[in-house]
Amino acid sequence: MMKRDLLQVYFILGSNNTEQDPLYVLEEALKGGITLFQFREKGHGALAGEDKKQLAIKMKKLCHQYDVPFLVNDDVDLALEIEADGVHVGQEDMSIQEVRKIVPSDWLVGVSSTNVQEAVQAKNDGADYIGVGPIFSTDTKADAKKPIGAKGLQEIRDRVGDLPIVAIGGIQLGHVIELMRAGADGVSIISAISLSPNPESVAATFYMHTNYFSKEQ
Ligand code: 3NM
């Protein structure tokens, strides 16, 4: 099983999630102590083709300088081409079984789940972790589902045993303790870090809060 500490502060970023240089934002977040990174180049103004690939290569390099695993959202071909450390897929993307067939056995493979049924399915399919959400409403994902709250997260935790879980969607610093208590191993964040004027200090504070909770147990 994956080291669940990796999910503590799981930062996700695409070039359209910030007005700043995405490489600057990523490096600040890495300095602040993010534990896992996902490149998610989606939505209005997203890069494609060679531009997307070049940005991914630079981000992977940065992550590795800080010993943080680099995952790619959805685009398994790109992930393979640039030798990422794993992939994250949504419910509409390639299935976990299909992904497992074509990626190295040591890759992290995560899947999004918004309800108990999807979560149990992901566990049975052999996902390393699930991204559970949206917990709260979010402006970052245009087609986000209805928020499930900490209660929805708790229901999923009660049904998947010790499967590693990261909470996602609208998460701010003040939510961390509630979500860790509801059964999350960590929090996944875009805008609370990417839109902050000081991504390093926000990332560091997320780390402190999640770490405090894991030490409390
Ligand atoms: N996936 P922010 S919510 C990428 O529910 C993503 O699966 C979600 O961004 C899901 O931290 C979401 O800015 C957006 O709310 C997360």
Question: Can you give a write-up of this model?
Answer:
Its cofactor is Mg(2+). One of its GO terms (cellular component) is cytoplasm. InterPro entries: Aldolase_TIM, ThiamineP_synth_sf, ThiamineP_synth_TenI, TMP_synthase. The chain is of the alpha/beta class and about 220 residues long. It has a single domain, classed as TIM Barrel (Alpha-Beta Barrel). About 40% of the residues lie in helices and about 15% in strands. It has helices at about 20-30, 50-65, 75-80, 95-100, 115-125, 150-160, 175-180, 190-195, 200-215; strands at about 10-15, 35-40, 70-75, 85-90, 110-115, 130, 165-170, 185-190. Strands 1-2-3-4-5-6-7-8 form an 8-stranded parallel beta barrel, surrounded by 6 helices. Strand 6 (about 130), helix 6 (about 150-160) and strand 7 (about 165-170) form a beta-alpha-beta unit. Helix 1 packs parallel to helix 9 (about 200-215). The longest helix is centred in the last third of the chain and has 18 residues, at about 200-215. About 45% of the residues are buried. The mean pLDDT is about 95. Ligand 3NM binds near residues 169, 170 and 189. Ligand 3NM binds near residues 144 and 191.
Brief sketch in words of this structure:
This protein is an alpha/beta fold and 217 residues long. The chain is built from 9 helices and 8 strands.
Largest beta-sheet details: 8 strands, parallel, barrel
CATH architecture: Alpha-Beta Barrel
The beta-strand count equals: 8
Beta-sheet strand percentage?
A: 15-25%
Silhouette: globular
State the distance separating the first and last CA atoms: 20 Å
Low-confidence stretches: none
